């Protein structure tokens, strides 16, 4: 085992992978069916399936995301299956849930949640995990991604309180109706400007779906669709939470105001970058 780890670490370092020793341990622990912590206590002469390990190592050396190799990624309190059909859930997106909890601390205060562009279902399912009386709808235009979100709901015991609709944003959604609407609308849409896609890290550029990344010339195309849709579907006292990209806050705040929303909160991610804003219908 020790020689395998050393060889993998050197290969990963040569490929420009960050934290090569850590990643080598993650791959080896996965092959052995152990936690990374347990691996640290295992004898260095532990037998390893070299062929299986090398197959995974070869994929990582091509910069395939580690989450694809492991088959899952932790997000909030959830364990989510991942695939090339969706973006890999990122810790920065947990800021959406943190912002929601700050605005709606009462766990019985949220009954209906809508997640636009649900992907793996990470935001929808994390919200449902925190609000036990809530029911949620995820909307996802890619059929494979929608199927993955449904599978993740089952995986985390939330299938009974959720549904996933395969639709292009709100094309299949009706009016909110009198006294209806969603208490919470979440969205982490594509927001990378088209011209910036070529500069993304290889793990993202080559392995994650372009449609989930490309936000058009200024990165804001999806919001132009989402904001009028949210105004139609949001409950009177509901809250809209949007994830967005670096430097996009001023333009997005102006867009919110133009569509009849008041800004409630602007929150930074773990790196101190403005990442999430919350809004509500303008008070008259």
From TrEMBL:
Residues 5-71 form the Release factor glutamine methyltransferase N-terminal domain. The keyword Methyltransferase applies. One of its GO terms (molecular function) is peptide chain release factor N(5)-glutamine methyltransferase activity. InterPro entries: DNA_methylase_N6_adenine_CS, HemK-like, N5-glutamine_MTase, PrmC_N, RF_methyltr_PrmC, SAM-dependent_MTases_sf, Small_mtfrase_dom. Its EC number is 2.1.1.297. It comes from the Bacteria. It catalyses: L-glutaminyl-[peptide chain release factor] + S-adenosyl-L-methionine = N(5)-methyl-L-glutaminyl-[peptide chain release factor] + S-adenosyl-L-homocysteine + H(+). Residues 107-191 form the Methyltransferase small domain. Substrate binds at residues 188-191. PROSITE patterns: N6_MTASE. Keywords: Methyltransferase, S-adenosyl-L-methionine, Transferase. S-adenosyl-L-methionine binds at residues 117-121, 140, 169, 188. It is an enzyme of class 2 (transferase). One of its GO terms (biological process) is methylation. SUPFAM superfamilies: S-adenosyl-L-methionine-dependent methyltransferases. NCBIfam families: hemK_fam, RF_mod_PrmC. Belongs to the protein N5-glutamine methyltransferase family. PrmC subfamily. Methylates the class 1 translation termination release factors RF1/PrfA and RF2/PrfB on the glutamine residue of the universally conserved GGQ motif. This is Release factor glutamine methyltransferase. It comes from Endobacter medicaginis.
């Amino acid at each position: 085992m020790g020689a395998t780890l050393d060889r993998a670490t050197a290969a990963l370092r040569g490929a420009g992978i960050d934290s090569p020793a850590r990643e080598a341990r993650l791959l080896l622990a996965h092959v052995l069916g152990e936690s990374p912590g347990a691996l640290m206590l295992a004898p260095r002469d532990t037998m390893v399936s070299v062929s299986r390990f090398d197959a995974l190592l070869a994929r990582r050396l091509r910069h395939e995301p580690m989450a694809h190799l492991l088959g899952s990624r932790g997000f909030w309190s959830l364990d989510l299956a991942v695939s090339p059909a969706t973006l890999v859930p990122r810790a920065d997106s947990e800021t959406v849930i943190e912002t929601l909890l700050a605005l709606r601390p009462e766990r019985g205060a949220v009954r209906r949640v809508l997640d636009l562009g649900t992907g793996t279902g990470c935001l929808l399912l994390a919200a449902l995990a925190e609000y036990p009386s809530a029911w949620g709808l995820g909307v996802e235009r890619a059929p494979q991604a929608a199927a993955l979100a449904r599978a993740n709901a089952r995986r985390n015991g939330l299938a009974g309180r959720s549904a996933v609709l395969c639709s292009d944003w709100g094309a299949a959604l009706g009016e909110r109706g009198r006294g209806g609407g969603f208490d919470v609308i979440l969205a982490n849409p594509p927001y990378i400007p088209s011209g910036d896609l070529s500069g993304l890290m290889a793990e993202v550029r080559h392995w994650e779906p372009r449609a989930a990344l490309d936000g058009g010339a200024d990165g804001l195309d999806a919001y132009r669709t989402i904001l009028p849709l949210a105004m139609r579907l949001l409950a009177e006292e509901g809250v809209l939470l949007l994830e967005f990209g670096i430097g996009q806050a001023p333009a997005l705040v102006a867009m919110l105001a133009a569509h009849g929303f008041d800004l409630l909160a602007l929150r930074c991610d773990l790196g101190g970058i403005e990442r999430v804003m919350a809004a509500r219908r303008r008070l008259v």
